[in-house]
Each structure stands twice: as C-alpha cells, then as structure tokens.
Amino acid sequence: MNEHIRKLKEQLGDQLVIPAHHYQKQEIIACADIIGDSYKLAVDVSSTDAEFIVFCGVRFMAEGAAILAKKHQKIILPAPDAGCPMADMISLSQAENAMRKIHEFSGYSAIPVVYMNAYGNIKALSGQYGGSVCTSSNAKKIMIHYLRNNSPVFFLPDYCLGINTARELSLSDEQIAIVRQDCTIETTGKPENIKLFLWDGNCRVHQRFTTKHIERIRDEHPGIRVVVHPEVRESVAAAADSAGSTQYMYNIIQESPAGSIWGVGTEYNFVSRVSADFPDKHIFPIFESRCGNMEKTNIKNLQNMLESITEAALQVQYPDHIITVSESVRKDAAQALKNMIAIVQRS
Description:
Elements: H1 2-12, E1 16-17, E2 19-21, H2 26-29, E3 34-36, H3 38-46, E4 52-54, H4 59-68, E5 74-76, H5 92-106, E6 111-115, H6 120-128, E7 132-134, H7 139-148, E8 153-156, H8 159-168, E9 176-179, E10 185-186, E11 196-199, H9 204-207, H10 211-220, E12 225-228, H11 234-239, E13 242-243, H12 246-254, E14 261-265, H13 268-277, E15 282-285, H14 299-310, H15 314-317, E16 322-323, H16 327-346
Parallel strand pairs: 1-4, 2-3, 4-5, 6-7, 6-8, 8-11, 9-11, 12-13, 12-14, 14-15
Antiparallel strand pairs: 5-16, 9-10
Helix pairs in contact: 1-14, 3-4, 6-16
C-alpha cells in the first residue's frame, strides 16, 4: 500500500501535499511530506501552491489549515470523524456565555486567548474580541502581553496548559478563577484581583499521566530526564524536569548527547517515533497513552483520498472529507492568528 501511495503521489506531483501531525502512526509519517505541530503544518501548507492538502490529523487541525489556505486549496481529512475531545468541551454559545459571566463577575471584559486545539469558530471569537490564538510553545508570551496591559485573560479550552503557564508566571490561586462548563466561576480570590480565567477543559490523552508514572520510571532508570507536554496535570508538570510542545520535546532529545536516558509524557505514537529516530539514546514512554482520534487516519483511508483525487472523483465520492470554514470565521480567526504572530515577534 505504501508503494501504491508513492506512485499516486508521483502522479499528482506538485498538486498534492500530505502534512502529518507528530501523533500520527508511523505508516502515515512514512507517507507524509511535512511533519509537525498543528500550527506549523497550517503555516507550511499555506506556503505551498498545492491544490490538494490531504491533512493527516484531526478536524480542528484541518480547520486551522483551511483558515490560512489559499483560495484554490482544498483541505482534505482522510477521517472526517477524527475529532478532539478537548475542542469538543466548549461550544461557541458556551464561550460567548462565559465571556458575559466573566464581565458580570468582575466588571471587566476579559481578552480571550484561545489554544490552537480549538475549532475555527472559537478562534474567530478571539479575533472578534481583540484576542489571540496561542500554541503550547508561546502561551506564556501571549499571556504576558495581555497581563502587562492590565487586561484579564480568558484562556480556553485547556485548563492544564493554562494553569501550568500561570505557574510559570507566578500567578497565585487568588489571581486565578476556573470557569466551569456550566459557566459558573470558582475562585478563592476577590473579583477585582483575578487576572486569569481558565476554562475547565482538558486533553484525555495527557490526563492519563500521573506523578506515580514519573516516580516509577525514575526508579527503573536512574539518571533519566523526564519531559512532558504542558497539557498534563499541574502536579505532573511539576514532577517532570521540563515541559514543552511536541516539537520542543523532539528538539531537546535530538540535541542531547548519545546515551541520554529520556522519559516522555505525551501521545505514544510520538514517543515511539522519537525512539526510532534516535537509536543512540534510551527513550521510554512514562505511560502508553494513545489518541484514538489520531489513529482514525490510516493507510487505507489515505490511499482512498489519493485515488479519488487522481480519478477527479473527490467531491462526488468523499464530499464530507473536504474541510471548509465560512468566510466570516476565516477572517476573524485569521485575525487572531495575526495577533499571535505580532505579539510573538514583538516579544
């Protein structure tokens, strides 16, 4: 099947690009033209002129690519039911209601900072209110920018990335509030002192990691360095040696000396691939946690997409696989992305 896909790719030539997220299985990574985090993939896709972008990831990532894509580009998802439970934890109506509740609670309008792991309409909401998108690698810079301007921040949808970033900024519990999914607000602080409102969402894959996993792997491998994704619980991030995005983890392991011992706390397919990429190092998952939605993309449905493109039958055979966003969502979400880029460049 890999050989058949290779021939289909040769046939399509520059018309086709296959981006794949770090969490894809090795059989998909082997077919990919671009590998990376969701934001990197969206940017890289938009820099090509390929008409067909067969995006190996989940729906919010494909929407991110559609937001930045050129008008002639088609974003195609091999598994259109590949969603994201974290992104599903907040709807547009919930986000709008949360903004109203925050204003009623504090007397201030909070600036929405939306993690990349959200759907296009939530990113668009951020753009409408002068907010920004963020990634796991630049969340700290984005928060600092708004907090320095004395603007309370509403961070969504991932509580864990939000609280781990807050701790890096030395925010106390009295400066943080949790916005539950029914939009009630919980805090030990006074309304006028709250700097950060955190939506109560999380990533199921990263919620599975515990401090006991880290304790066990340290006992099994003396001298091990533990690196985790900042979507883990606060206690797990504190127990690790460092935390960062998947690209950060890949880079830090790549740059480490031969013989280094690493425990990695993120999606298992990524850990397995890093271990294969760097056989001169000893790399272990602190726990085998897999993303079932990422694994919905497989070699068969990837092949089906390429075949339908070569037969000019994509829109007839697989119309639900073509991912689009409305022009209003695209415009406002793109503005939030532009705000992120401007803030990072200034900082």
